[in-house]
Structure formats: structure tokens, C-alpha cells
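INTERNAL AUDIT FORM
Audit reference: QA-55
Scope: verify that the stored structure record matches its stored sequence.
Auditor: D.O.
Record contents follow.
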Amino acid sequence: MKLFDLLRPKAVDDALKERVIEALRRVYDPEIPVNIYDLGLIYDLDIDDQGRVAIRMTLTAPGCPVAQTFPAQVARAVEAVAGVSQCKVELTWEPPWTLARASEAARLQLGIYP
């Protein structure tokens, strides 16, 4: 087996992961005008070699009015990515979300400076 053959699957996985992250960056929190990825709502993102994506995410508050429908919206956005065969989204409340999970860019966008 050649070194290129060993490296190729990893490069493909990384490219698919980047496309999934870009799709997540086009989904915005319904209450805060920042995308869910940079807001830190995505806790885990796993992709297997068959293009199945598993996401564990939270919302900004347990009483969020879109808690029932938002995971399906996220799954649809990810399933539209070339190379994704399926997406399952699990909603969790542990650990609770805080603004500390948001990226620096998201905090700047919200006018919160470190």
C-alpha cells in the first residue's frame, strides 16, 4: 500500500467535514443573529466513511420555542451537502450553553468584547 492511499481517505473526510461546517454556518439561531456553529451550539460532529453525520447540539435555552423543530432544520441543511448520506441530530442540555462557547468572531458580531 502506498502512502498516498493511506492519506487519501483522511483528506476526503476533512473536505466533507468542512462542507458540513459551512452548511452549519448558514443556519442561524432564531433568537440571536449568529450562526449555530460559531455560536457554539454544536457540541459534537462525527462523520463516518459512508457519509452519515451525527451531530450533538444544544440551544441557547431549554425553553427555546423551536426546540421541537430546529434539529430537523439542522439535519436538512446538512443532508443537502454533497457527500452526506444521512444526518441525525441529537439535542442535549448538558452542559448548558453559555456565551463562553461562542467563537471570538461571534462575540464581536454580538458586540461582546473579551
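Auditor finding: record pair retrieved intact. The chain has a mean pLDDT of 89.
Action required: none
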